Amino acid sequence: MVSGLIRSFLTLAAIGILVSTAQAAVIEVTNRSDLGANDFVDWSQLGPVDFSSPITLPYDVTSNSGSTATLSKPSGVIYADVQTPGGPWGGNFAPGDALLYNGPQFGIDSSPLTIAFATPVYGVGAQIGVNVVTSSDYLFDATIRAYRADNSLLFEHVFKDLVMNNKADNSANFIGIRSSTGEIASIEISVPASTSYGTNDFAINQLDINSVPEPSTFALAGLGGLGFAVRAVRRRRAATV
Prior knowledge:
With 241 residues, the chain is of the alpha+beta class. The protein has one domain (26-215): Sandwich (Jelly Rolls), CATH 2.60.120. It is 19% helix and 34% strand. It contains 2 helices and 14 strands, in the order αββββββββββββββα. Strands 1, 2, 5, 6, 8, 11, 13 and 14 form an 8-stranded antiparallel beta sheet that branches. Helix 1 runs antiparallel to helix 2.
């Protein structure tokens, strides 16, 4: 009887581990629809395209639902930009897309862009591209790092061989992350000099945000693990009768 109780206790502990693991899952997202977004930041709020008047950081932006996010980086500025056929942004965002251009202007190196959320979120992402002048596909890499509220690293992923050209056809790659817990307090986006015209020479379009928990594969994974463990307990109990 004691042995059976111990086994049951250990099985219940395993259940806790399975559920905890599912709850803590963080994944990269490469499709906007998979993010499950319920809020967004439209970069048109940065103002008109004017490269003679850069936007000084830190700079607060407001999401569609009224939440606040702060843009910052150790050095440099940002610019408002827009995708139109033939420029000024040479890329493959959708025509008319309002863009946040991280710089640098004219190939001068810049620093990674940080977006900090007033309230931690469950997911975040956007399409990304570097400025090119060719219709041929140009490959580049981009990294997203996500941090908790205490600035500890939650997740890091390098998105490899992203495609850019100047066709303005909405084919720019989407990069994002999603967590089963609302721990994403900030993200940092960077592009290495080896895959851009200058370090962190990139732009992103509308920033999609998942600000509330929703049913997802994370929850299903947790329930699946729970069901498996419960069945195991029942089988063990039946075997001792």
